Amino acid sequence: SSDLDHLEPEIPERLRAILIQEDRLKVVMTGYKFFKQPPASVSPFNIHLTKDLGPLEADEACKLIIDPVQSIYSYEPAAIELILKASKLEPRNIQFLCHEAINRMYEADKPEKTLMIGIRHVEANIPALITLLETEKSNQWKN
Hints:
The protein is globular. The protein is mainly α and 143 residues long. It is built from six helices and two strands. 51% of the residues lie in helices and 3% in strands. It has helices at residues 10-21, 58-66, 77-87, 91-109, 119-123, 126-142, and strands at 74-75, 116-117.
């Protein structure tokens, strides 16, 4: 089961409207499920595009880790290596580990000047990623 399964039917349509109206806002959503069929009321123009992604190349994965936050945070090289290894270069897993590592950094360090994401911030979230993936795999067999 995906988070998208729990959304009210009009939410994807509202999200689409916001993305069309606001040209400064760009969104990339990753996951195992996505809206393959737009709601019947959606215009056939300007609908979201979906692309199935497999594992990234290592350089692309590094860009996904570093580029979105480079003006705010930095990563220890060992933290980047661990994210690459633990994520198996899957974009969704990379984003999960990065997001959780940033949260862990704020919880653990209360950073003021140095916003450095370290290996300890990443390591702490690997069990949660493993649990998430195992749960999703188990749920796939149920559906």
